[in-house]
Amino acid sequence: MATTSASPAGPRRGDDTRERLLDSVETLIADHGYQTLTHRQIAQRAEVHVALLNYHFGSKEQLVVDALERRAERLMRLQRESLEVVRANGSWTVEDVLWATWQPFAVLDSGSDPTWRNYLCMVARLASYERGEELYGRIFGLYEAQCREALQRALPALSQDELARGLRYCRLIFERELRERCGGLAPDAAQQQRRSEQLISFLAGGLRSLHTEVARTTG
Fold it and tell me: Structurally, what CATH architecture does the domain formed by 71-218 represent?
């Protein structure tokens, strides 16, 4: 009987430890970024022995990757749903497409659901991670491709490379805006909405200016 009861307990304890480590790295990156992250900090936050990090993930880097992948489908689903609403209207603007990407982050503040808030803040800090661009493409590449396709209908003169560079710049600006919100200093909801509208307007204007310049020089 002892063997029968102990057998399922082991995997459950292992799964619990794994989830605690994932939660720990999510929270630490959301609050402090990637640069100062250490094995010991992650283990202490998860209240487990530091050796278990390597046991479950092999390395700190793989833990970060797994943490990013854990909720990626939920984030992309929200973005795709926003993009589908735009697509269903039959036509869209640059602003519409950028809003679809920004929408899950738009009302992020210290009052948000802690689990989801930590994940979104971790994604927002991806630009400051040394492997950030590589990981973004690997994890969120499918949505990125759909976003480029939608943008190209609004900005037909731009090549795929130009659109990719434009979207990368937009992500960097989004990340800067989110630093304040992730730091717990976010403005109230009305101010956040105004700032979001200004941000989208600014980025859309930049992409349109690029489109105008490319169309002028190639036409």
Answer: Orthogonal Bundle (1.10)
